[in-house]
Amino acid sequence: MQKIGVIPGDGIGPEVIEQARRVVDVLAEKRKLEFEFEEFPVGAGHYLKTGEVLSEETIHRLSRKDAILLGAMGDPRVAPGILEKGILLRLRFHFDQFVNLRPVKLFEGVPTPLSESSPKIDIQFVRENTEDFYVGLGGRVKEGLSKTELTLLRRTFEAKFDVGIDLKDEEELAFQIGVITRHGARRIMEFAFELAKRKGIGLVTSVDKANVLTDMYGLWREACEEAAQKYKIDKEFQYVDAVALHMVRNPQRFKLVVVPNLFGDILTDLGAALQGGLGIAPSGNINPSGVSMFEPVRGSAPDIAGKGMANPIGAILSCALMVETLGHVEAARDIENAVKAVLKAGRHRTPDLGGKTSTAGMGDAVISQLRMQ
Ligand code: NAD
Ligand code: IPM
Ligand code: MN
Q: What ligand is nearest to the CA atom of residue 280?
């Protein structure tokens, strides 16, 4: 029995998670697996009612699960950042989910904005998930002289930044500090090269902006170099701007991309667009020796919430990643194959893919395919 904590969250989160759970139930029956789900009412609704973002008690209960399944965070009634940082990022950091695995695969029958109708896109994005400009160090200074001490407290180190700013004739200054550690860079490279080895991928593309942000990404490159030598797998360094260009012009050339947190956030939305839109893209926030959390790449899509229009495929494929990470590789392939077959047949498509199928209708289609396989 494996225990899954479910956070349906905001906007379309609950609708797509409902379909994903139905798929997992059918899969469990088919493969004789046992999953026990417990729902956690965390998100905008809970926050607006109680003023509480995420309690220690909830974190503690989640820490006893084998995995977490999350719908989406973010609500127009709540200031940006409160839920995204207070729940999503807090959980990623708390559970030290240092890998954000985002496979970008273009399935047959899915419309892509690229001129070539069906280029072979199959890229494993390995996004670092705990460092870089996401560490939350920053501030704003409005007038005169200011001194601030910023602290970053992590299991392996504590960094204090004494910031002294004299604004003189300047009106206002805002700053944000990025951090990369040797340990942080090393472990994401290890994961990336290990994955390349497991999947028989011969080239790892490492992304950075080492021509401008020389310190952080200098260290990033050294860690990549080290891992490439250890694993005897080829690597290439590419600047993030060039990767954006190549992803549109020639996405086939990428197989596995290892990327720092912020650039990874941006490139994986571009990747989602190439694979048919945000409704399709899955992701896993992974701690290989801890509690991992699975969620679709996109946000809460408040513009279509409650209308039965949301595409649940991203959530369903996130469950495939979850099931695979929990050790059931063949069961994960079952889900992926069912999705693949439904998309290829083309009879069922949600409005984001140009069709009329509802969220539940899409869930039904995947389930009947899964039963037939
Ligand atoms: P979004 O991803 O919610 O929506 C972008 C566009 O994509 C919208 O037009 C939406 O309708 C469409 N879309 C997204 N998912 C879809 C689906 N499954 N089916 C069909 N169409 C879909 O991004 P946004 O509008 O920039 O952000 C909305 C909120 O979500 C904000 O509060 C933001 O901070 C938050 N957010 C959360 C996450 C997360 O929980 N991981 C990720 C990104 C944004
Ligand atoms: C994502 C989202 C999050 C991120 C936000 C909502 C904090 O955009 O999961 O890609 O930036 O990582
Ligand atoms: Mn994002």
A: 1
